[in-house]
Amino acid sequence: MQREELKLFLADKADDMKAQDIVTIDVEGKSSVTDFMIVCTGTSRRHVISIADHVASEVKKVGLEPLGIDGDTEGEWVVLDMGSTMLHVMQEEHRELYQLEKLWS
């Protein structure tokens, strides 16, 4: 799967789980870690974990493996690392506090 396809796939799978305010940020040239960040909001701890679990499961169904998943036990901010794209699923208060869109845009 090409990077553009992966980016769209991850955002679509987060949307399947009713993730809110899904934003894709192009950080190519700004970050040495990834090319795209997808940031979205879950309404509760359980919702954040469910979104990340669903996306990880769907990725595996198409033959890809996440490089890492972090934060999935706490459910406040879960990061799914797919190499060229990182998915950040956050509770509203953490999203407002860290303002990743503002930081990377």
Automatic annotation (TrEMBL):
Specify the superkingdom: Bacteria
The protein's role, per its UniProt record? Functions as a ribosomal silencing factor. Interacts with ribosomal protein uL14 (rplN), blocking formation of intersubunit bridge B8. Prevents association of the 30S and 50S ribosomal subunits and the formation of functional ribosomes, thus repressing translation.
Keywords, ordered alphabetically: Cytoplasm, Repressor, Translation regulation
Record keywords: Cytoplasm included? yes
Gene name per UniProt: rsfS
- Quote the SUPFAM superfamilies the UniProt record gives: Nucleotidyltransferase
Organism per entry: Vibrio maritimus
UniProt GO molecular function: ribosomal large subunit binding
Name it.
Ribosomal silencing factor RsfS
Q: Name one GO biological process term.
A: negative regulation of translation
What does UniProt give as GO cellular component? cytoplasm
User: Can you say where in the cell this protein is located?
Assistant: Cytoplasm
A Pfam family cross-referenced in the UniProt record is RsfS
Q: Which family does it belong to?
A: Belongs to the Iojap/RsfS family.
* Repressor recorded as keyword: yes
Question: What is its quaternary makeup?
Answer: Interacts with ribosomal protein uL14 (rplN).
